[in-house]
Amino acid sequence: MGTKPGRTEPVSPPPGPDSRTPCPELLAVAEEAFRGGNYELAAEIYGSQLAELPQPERSLCLRRGDALARAGRAAEALDAYTVAARLGGLRPEELKELVESCALAIREELRLPPWEPALGGGAGGGESSAGDEPAAGPGPFSPAAAASSSTLSAAWDLFRCPRCRLLLCDPVTLHCGHTLCKRCTDTDPGLPAGPCCPSAKSPPSRRDSCPSRVNVVLGNLLEKCFQTESRVRRLASQAESLRHQHELDAALHKYDQALDLAPGDSLLIVQRAELFTVMKKYNQALHDADAVCRSKPLWPKGHYVKAQALSGLGRTEEALKEFLYCVALNPGRGIIKKEAQKIMCEVFFSALENIHENLTSSFRSRTPYTRLKSKFMSNVNTQTELEDDSSAGCSKDSLFQFNKTLSQESDVYQNSDSSPSHHVLDLHFEDKKTTFKTALSNINLKRELPTDLEDVQNLNIPNKISKEDGETLPQIVPNTKVGESPVILVDASDFECSLCMRLFYEPVTTPCGHTFCLKCLERCLDHTPDCPLCKEKLSEFLASRSYKKTTLTEELILHYLPEELSDRKKVYDDEMKELSNLTKDVPIFVCTMAFPTIPCPLHVFEPRYRLMIRRCMETGTKRFGMCLADELKGFADYGCMLEIRDVRFFPDGSSVVDTVGISRFRVLSHGLRDGYNTANIEYLEDKKVEGPDYEELVHLHDSVYDQAVSWFTSLKENMKAQILNHFGSMPSKESEPQSNPSGPAWYWWLLAVLPLENRAQLAILGMTSLKDRLIAIRRVLIFVTRKRPR
User: Fold this and answer.
1) E-assigned strand segments in 226-365
2) Which stretch is the leader sequence (predicted)?
């Protein structure tokens, strides 16, 4: 049935006060309030709905618990979760909001930067996605956190692996140009999968996944500057590998050796604590982890390992404290939240999983929430009459009116906590609230933070712990000696190219681990696809043609040898400037005839011409000269300048170069550079004419053009097809013959397709009079027309 204009459809009234089901409109407002951060309002609405039900609904209990937790009313939230647990087993993921709210309170106590958690719409929150985990760095901790635990000084930042954020160990340079530890490039269960390095967005290519050799230059530099530290890193790496191979005793021995060389290194200690946890030696693990927590109180990994050790010892409440502290320090790590939720579920709700006591009688009484609901329903009806197409329960206006109504009904808030449901919770679960408050209060934050008078950065950690679980462990005594940062001794000889014997410029590392200047390597690969030093085959590396500069080597040179790099760059710039000159020492390709405006494709395979084409591209000129060969001089006295439009490389290093003629030139002198010919040249331009001579030129131009079109039209179809396929269509006649310094384009097209010897073409190419060239081409047309068989 249709609706008359000006009238509205009758609206069915919402459920009345005696309804036994939750009001959808109120629940929608509660959800909107929760998403908007008004947790107090959301909690009150959920509480009002629960109070009116004959028996509590589990999902509403969970949502009320979430809202109370976000509002900072943790003990009341625990009550709501407990009711939900009695109605059905509580899952750890349903305590996400409670854990995050506790972590937020701890962050505020620590005065850490504010953290805005994701506002969940579901009950209890779901599983953390893989995106919550870091893209790099072992375990559930970010690389920055791991780096903060190392004793490496800030001066060593350049030598850190971008993946594990530790001092490079057996550095390997990938095809993308970034350098990682060799272990970080291998398929290792201790490291996350993902791109080849944090700086690369695309997945590793097949070349990157192949085993690579250690970068010789960087490896030698690390051994020179960080001999002891490199040995420590190698021992730790070996220990990790042994651990993943389940050779735990051997791994422990390696950690002990590393700590002999670097006592007090927090990362080594926490790694040994993790190993103790795997070996179920929880007392030793707790001892190491506690030392790290006192040395690095704001490092999440120390608290995480300590929580695992406490959990292994059965001290679940203390483990919960450490997990909450860890979440507070690192809120974005889903795996830590899951552990905290699991422990919290075990501590407070494990005994209630199989209890399903009927609480119907406790919720039969009505509370002042009935008046609150009536107020809201009247607002809904009014809103519906005013707006046909809007949902009154979800609109912003209705939410505003509802807030205003609640502010007027202050007695509702004052009496909300005195409902029968809360009396039941207070009677049955007061001990649980006390336990929860005690667990939170035990997180003594201020005493764990270092003071100005205490030096907790270096603790005297015992390098070996031979005591069994349960025995007395040695006390940790702070070490007053502060280690000095090492002096980085770098000189130009550490970064010398073995080919040009100069400082690296645009260094590139081959898969075999040797480093060269980019230009030096390319010149060597022009002659042979082998490494210049070890002679290893580099055919696949050559086929890629995308040599990436070694980023770390460039950064080290820039940081430690800025003056030498500036001098080296000046030499390179001078070379490029010299190569960019298009009148002096111009590169000459000695091959065939070329003409202005006419395409000239080339197959380049000789090493000297590979170098020449590459230099033309590097300088940005993209130009070189083309000349005919000459037995006496080497190449002819006239030629055509070509411009490179495209280059396609093949795996063997050869290439197809697409060029087009630009202008004519005359050779003034011949030369040679790095195997290819060069010349000093001057460019040729046609002499312009005016007056009667110009009119005569135009008449001659039009006449020869018509003659050329007639000749081409008379050719056989197969001959025309070959010409069109190779040279393209004949250019149209230009209205102004002298507009181009080299003459009309159709003329050069005709000269290229006519059956003339190269020497005859060369003579015409060198003419600077358009009239003389037109007369010469007309004679050729007359000759070929008469000679053509009839």
Assistant:
1) none
2) none
Question: CA–CA separation, 150 vs 267, rounded Å?
Answer: 6
Q: What tokens were used for 196? A: 């080849």
**pLDDT for 767-781, tens place per residue?**
999 999 999 999 999
Nearest to 385 by CA among 4, 785, 7, 76: 7
Q: Residue 643 in 3-state DSSP? A: strand
Q: Does residue 30 share a domain with residue 63?
A: yes
Amino acid 773: pLDDT? 92
Question: What is the number of structural domains in the chain?
Answer: 5
Residue 142 lies in a domain: no
Concatenated DSSP letters of 461-521 = --S---PPTTSPPPPPEE----PPPPP----GGGGB-TTT-SB-SSEEE-TTS-EEEHHHH
For residues 683-717, b (16+ Cβ closer than 10 Å) or e, as one string? ebebeebeeeeeeebeebbeebbebbeebbeeeee
- For the whole prediction, is pTM greater than 0.70? no
CB 297 within 8 A of CB 449: yes
Other CB atoms within a 10 A radius of the CB of residue 787 amount to: 8
Does 7 map to a domain? no
Q: Is the pLDDT of residue 38 over 80?
A: yes
* 3-class secondary-structure state, position 707: helix
The three-point CA angle 180-296-461 to 5° equals 90
The answer to whether residue 139 sits within a structural domain is no
Q: 155 and 287: one domain? A: yes
pLDDT in tens, 701-718: 999 999 999 999 888 899
Q: In terms of Cα–Cα distance, which of 693, 682, 780, 784 is closest to 737?
A: 693
Between residues 568 and 341, the one the model is more confident about = 568
Domain identity same for 770 and 668? no
Q: Name the residue type at position 454.
A: E
Rounded distance, CA 368 to CA 358, Å? 24
Instruction: Using CA atoms of 587, 590, 592, 593 in order, give the dihedral in degrees to the nearest 10.
Output: 50
pLDDT on residue 352: 52
* Dist. CA 171–CA 258, nearest whole Å: 19
Q: Does one domain contain both 719 and 647?
A: no
pLDDT-based confidence at residue 514 (cuts at 50, 70, 90): very high
Name the maximum alpha-carbon separation found in the chain: 122
DSSP state at residue 513:
S
- 58-72: per-residue pLDDT in tens? 888 889 988 998 888
Considering 633, 651, 684, which residue would you say is the last residue of a domain?
Answer: 684
pLDDT in tens, 197-244: 545 444 444 444 444 689 999 999 998 888 888 899 889 989 998 999
For residue 732, give its domain range: 692-787
Q: Which two tokens stand for residue 605?
A: 């395979």
Q: Which residues of 422-461 are buried (b: 16+ CB within 10 A; e: fewer)?
A: bebbeeebeebbeebeebbeebeeeeeeeeeeeebebbbb
Let me know: does 335 contact 185? Beta carbons within 8 Å.
no
* Residue 202 domain flag: no
Q: What is the CATH number of the domain that holds 178?
A: 3.30.40.10
Q: Are the C-beta atoms of 721 and 727 separated by less than 8 Å? A: no
Helix 551-560 to helix 562-579 angle (10° resolution) is 110
At 340-380, the pLDDT tens digits run 888 888 777 765 544 444 333 333 333 333 333 343 334 33
How many Å from the N-terminal Cα to the C-terminal Cα in the chain? 89
